[in-house]
Amino acid sequence: MKVYTRTGDKGQTSVIGGRVAKDDNQVEAYGTIDELNCFVGQAISFMGDDQIFADLREQLLEIQHELFDCGADLAFVNLSESKYKVTPELVERLELWVDTCEKENPPVERFILPGGHILSSTLHVCRTVCRRAERRTVTLGKEKDINPSVRKYLNRLSDYFFVIARTVNARKEVADIEYVRSAKVFKR
After folding, report:
1. Fold of 12-178
2. CA distance 113 to 127
3. Could you please report the per-residue DSSP string of 114-149?
4. Which of 79, 123, 139, 171 could be 145's S-S partner, Cβ–Cβ 3.0 to 4.6 Å?
5. Beta strand 18-21 with 177-178: parallel, antiparallel or unpaired?
């Protein structure tokens, strides 16, 4: 199989059921999800074989597959609910993971700056790219019907990345970096 096909040389790309411009909002949405998936892969690489991250490594690998599912659900020319891969159950499972990891984290009173352990910093990059993917998906949803579970999944996923970035710091005994110019804004 050849990697190049030359079919996109004039600025069009294939989606499920047709072709669209490469800068179409549909391509922007699933393309940003693909970018996010690359950063998730990088985060997994930074974990190496460190056993304190075994649970997170497994979760992130599952998320990589689900990000492919998100992209697939957004790649239809016409809405095809019967073929959806992202379901409300995936969103609920993310919430469970967030709640479980949050129990390990120290109380937070101020905004957190990205940083600490290199893995934590990478997960904050995942969080921000995830938020952009969510925004692109919201924009796409204004133009055409989409699987609403994808938007919800991305919203919850960014929360997950925030929480596990803090969990990584906690497990590595590295303090989160608080935004010190802020008043205490969170109460537990």
Report:
1. Hypothetical Protein Ta1238; Chain: A; (1.20.1200)
2. 12
3. S-SSHHHHHHHHHHHHHHHHHHHHHHHHHHS---HH
4. 79
5. unpaired
Q: Give the length of the chain.
A: 188
- Give tens-digit pLDDT for 101-157: 999 999 988 899 999 999 999 999 999 999 999 999 999 999 999 999 999 999 999
Helix (H) or strand (E) holding 186: none
| Overall pTM surpassing 0.90 (yes/no) | yes
- By DSSP bridging, strand 18-21 and strand 112-113 are unpaired
* CB atoms inside a 10 Å sphere around CB 154: 27
Distance CA 184, CA 188 (A): 11
